[in-house]
Design brief:
The protein has 413 residues and is α/β, with parallel strands linked by helices. 39% of the residues lie in helices and 15% in strands. Helix 11 packs across helix 12. Bound molecules: pyridoxal-5'-phosphate (PLP).
């Protein structure tokens, strides 16, 4: 690899050609060959996003005093998100992604507990085993401990087991809407009751479901409550760059009220340039991502998102119907939104995963239990049948066309 800093600059045409070549082996998401990483609504939405991003590409979200346009757009994005999360009286701000939003919720809970529960010196978080690793990453940086409690057989948080795990150091309970791996929404109403009773912070990781989930409900599908309508919910992370279909680098962290939001703030003064104060982990942050989010949300409106919600749910249903026809495959749990996971008691699903990869379908594996995970997005719509055909062939490769009658030993049980 030639990694020298070039002495002379090069022409854009030349660079574009080289970058196009470099991208030849990238994930073929345009043909639905992915199950995570990319959230593409359609080409029109992408174009709006691209144009809005480039209009504000030079702005800096850290300097909202000098970029009042960015401040206004961020406030309007948060207001739109909160109007869908029953967030009357709630407050929040934008971040660079789900991990930063979760980090800020954990930091806020820690600093809240330092003030309100000063006797706790070793703060602990109790989470279902399905929680996204961003939780442990945040706790690691913030000097906190995460206790992971096994989920129920339906892959949702086990509220009784979580209640039993609460101890004198517990400050925060954690739930997902939905979980990344299985696509199920935890029993957040019940967890909220426990949190209220014990005066604990409850964070809802709605990084996947927080933006499109409410529109799935508006499209007529039943969606369990997961937002501020539940009195025990303290904070919610909801990613715009996932089911909001906006440009990457955009998420939201919202709190039941402004007083709780204030615990995300970090102030520092003891340096030569006066007070540095921010609500985010990042310093400089891309005004372009905020502008793109504002533009996409206004471009799509409720109607546009309801349509995307319907398309995503129909894909999941079509996929589930096809899966039911493949001998030995079973869907894990009862997914609530557009994400689904399946596995097999009859054959080694990991080998099926490898066969799918060989066919160019970059399916995401689950390990506990072994399975394959799929996030339906509108780009998958034309390719559901191709996916199912590839899966049938991959299963046949693994079983030699004969599905064993008795279950084989499961690899990662
Ligand atoms: C449920 C959940 N939470 C948090 C995250 C982390 O989000 P990000 O990758 O934007 O930091 C993800 C990412 O897939 C997720 O699925």
């Amino acid at each position: 690899m030639d990694s020298k800093f070039p002495q002379k600059g090069r022409k854009w045409d030349d660079l574009q050609k080289q970058m196009t070549e470099m991208s030849q082996n990238d994930l073929d998401w345009q043909h639905g060959r992915h199950s995570a990483f990319v959230w593409h609504a359609n080409d029109e939405v992408k174009e709006v996003s691209r144009k809005a991003y480039s209009m504000f590409i030079s702005t800096n979200g850290l300097g909202k005093i000098v970029f009042p346009s960015i401040l206004t757009m961020e406030q309007e994005v948060i207001a739109m998100v909160l109007s869908n999360l029953n967030g009357e009286g709630a407050a929040g701000h934008m971040t660079s992604g789900g991990t930063e939003s979760i980090f800020l919720a954990v930091k806020a809970a820690r600093d809240w507990a330092r003030e309100k529960k000063p006797d706790i010196t070793q703060p602990e978080i109790i989470a279902p085993s399905s929680a996204h690793p961003a939780l442990n990453k945040s706790a690691h940086y913030l000097g906190m401990t995460v206790v992971r409690v096994p989920t129920r057989p339906d892959f949702r948080a086990d509220v009784d087991a979580i209640s039993n795990a609460i101890n004198k150091n517990t400050i925060l309970l954690y739930a997902s809407a939905p979980t990344f791996s299985m696509g199920v929404i935890d029993p957040i109403a019940d967890l909220g009751r426990v949190a209220q009773e014990k005066n604990l912070w409850l964070h809802v990781d709605a990084c996947v479901g927080g933006i499109l989930g409410p529109f799935v409900r508006k499209a007529g599908y039943p969606v369990p409550d997961f937002d501020f309508s539940l009195p025990g919910v303290t904070s919610i992370s909801a990613d715009l760059h996932k089911s909001g279909f906006t440009a990457k680098g955009a998420s939201t962290i919202t709190f039941r009220n402004q007083e709780l939001q204030a615990y995300t703030r970090y102030d520092f003064e003891d340096w030569p340039s006066g007070l540095y104060s921010s609500l985010t982990f990042t310093g400089t942050n891309p005004g372009g991502a905020i502008a793109a989010a504002w533009a996409v949300m206004n471009f799509l409106g409720e109607e546009g998102y309801i349509e995307l919600a319907k398309i995503s749910m129909q894909i999941r249903k079509r996929l589930e119907k096809g899966l039911a026809q493949i001998k030995g495959i079973k869907v894990w749990g009862k997914p609530d939104l557009w994400a689904v996971a399946y596995g097999s008691d009859a054959y080694d699903i990991l080998s099926v995963t490898y066969k799918m990869w060989e066919r160019g379908w970059m399916v995401a594996p689950n390990s506990k239990p072994p399975g394959i995970h799929f996030m339906a997005t509108p780009v998958h719509a034309p390719f559901v049948d191709e996916y199912l055909d590839a899966l049938k062939e991959s299963v046949a490769d693994v079983t030699g066309g004969n599905t064993p009658d008795s279950p084989i030993e499961v690899r990662y049980a």
